[in-house]
Amino acid sequence: MRYFRHTIAEYTCLKHCGYQRSVADANWSLFHLIAATVATVSLWLFSLHEQFPWFYFISVLAGELLLVYCAGFLSSFILLPFRGTFRCKQCGAPMTLCGRHFDPAGSRRPNRSDMAMFVMFVGLNIAVWVGLTKGDL
Questions:
Q1: Among 81, 73, 77, which residue's Cα sits nearest to residue 121?
Q2: CA-to-CA distance for 75 and 124, rounded, in angstroms?
């Protein structure tokens, strides 16, 4: 089963030396939905202990999906210097963006943007849990 979806950006050399590069970025996928659901269940169980109503599950899920979105937004800024698409590796000319497209088939393995997004999501969830246990949230 393919758990990861990507948006692929195609870059080409401005001097037309023939060098092309494809860069895959994370996109909403089944993996991120599963991660948000697992985090929702644990946070919802905590909210039951605190005697919140059962229907808070929906708002907790919405909050976790927002955390996934924020994690993707923050990880895209962190990974920006590591893309390596600024200069051609053959002639040194600038690279230009030729277009973006979605990967229709998906992937079985994550790339580094998926991993960075998941690490950022876990970090944001840890921050939420620390805030809840200290009583700041």
A1: 73
A2: 12
Q: Is 69 exposed, middle or buried (0-12, 13-18, 19+ CB in 10 A)?
A: middle
CA distance 68 to 30: 12
Strands 6-13 and 95-102: antiparallel
Q: Please tell me the pTM assigned to this model.
A: 0.79
Task: Count Cβ atoms within 10 A of the Cβ of residue 120 and give its class: 0-12 exposed, 13-18 middle, 19 or more buried.
Answer: buried
pLDDT exceeds cutoff 90 at 90: no
Phi, psi at 115, each rounded to 5°: -65, -40
Q: What are phi and psi of 85, to 5 degrees?
A: -110, 20
